[in-house]
Amino acid sequence: MADALLIFKPDSAYRLAARAGIWGWLASERDWKVESLDWFQPPADLIESHYDFLQGRPFFPWLVDFMTALPVVVGRVTASADALKQMRHDLGETQIARSRPGSLRERYGIFGGLNCLHLSDAAETGASEVKRWSEYVQLDQIKVDLDEKTQKQDHTYHLRSLATQVAGGIHVELASQLIRELVAEECELDGEKLDALWRITLGALS
Ligand code: DAT
Ligand code: MG
């Protein structure tokens, strides 16, 4: 059995329809078991080491902001190596424009690296990620009860269309404003937390 680290990134931790859809898949525990789940706001040093292989890439500062701006849902899953491979297949490719139709990322990811869920990509990376993260957060208990249903709307595909306009420099102000409104409608956030979610969402588009 392999250990794998799981993170509902801010774009799925707070967009409630995305979270419910992804949790529905995860909670099915088809070939895996969810061993722990908790809210945790990662510090920058943890994210910098977790993603050290991406240091120097142009999107790295955004990635660190994305992963540290808000508490996220972190967990541990156990699965056979083959089941973990299947889970990564279900998840879909890293960049949303390339994610396999029908995959979780194609279904709920907005744009670029706004791709909803982290899941260790193999048994070896799972073991080292779980070791690293367990120095910061307990990974042995389910402490969060997520819903598989929500009344909140899912604006993923509209958001993706608007994000494509912003990234292409087309109607940037109008599209950015509509993104803010739609994201707010999908969430139950306000104040500084909503500002942070807007910042990391729009930050992925520049
Ligand atoms: P994955 O999350 O599919 O395992 P990864 O480990 O290669 O992908 O990269 C980690 C995260 O970094 C990814 O989820 C989002 C971000 N990222 C990677 N490549 C990117 C790119 N070309 N543009 C934007 N974000 C990217
Ligand atoms: Mg990875």
Report on this model:
α8 (156-167) runs antiparallel to α9 and α9 packs across α10. 39% of the residues are buried. The protein has helices at 10-13, 16-27, 44-50, 60-68, 81-91, 104-108, 123-133, 156-167, 172-186, 191-203, and strands at 2-8, 32-40, 72-79, 117-119. It has a four-stranded antiparallel beta sheet, with helices on both faces. The chain folds into two domains: 2-133, Alpha-Beta Plaits, CATH 3.30.70.141; 156-203, no CATH class. It is an alpha+beta fold. Bound molecules: 2'-deoxyadenosine-5'-diphosphate and magnesium ion. 2'-deoxyadenosine-5'-diphosphate binds at residues 51, 54, 59, 63, 94-95, 112-113, 115, 118, 121. 2'-deoxyadenosine-5'-diphosphate (DAT) is lined by residues 51, 54, 59, 63, 94-95, 112-113, 115, 118, 121.
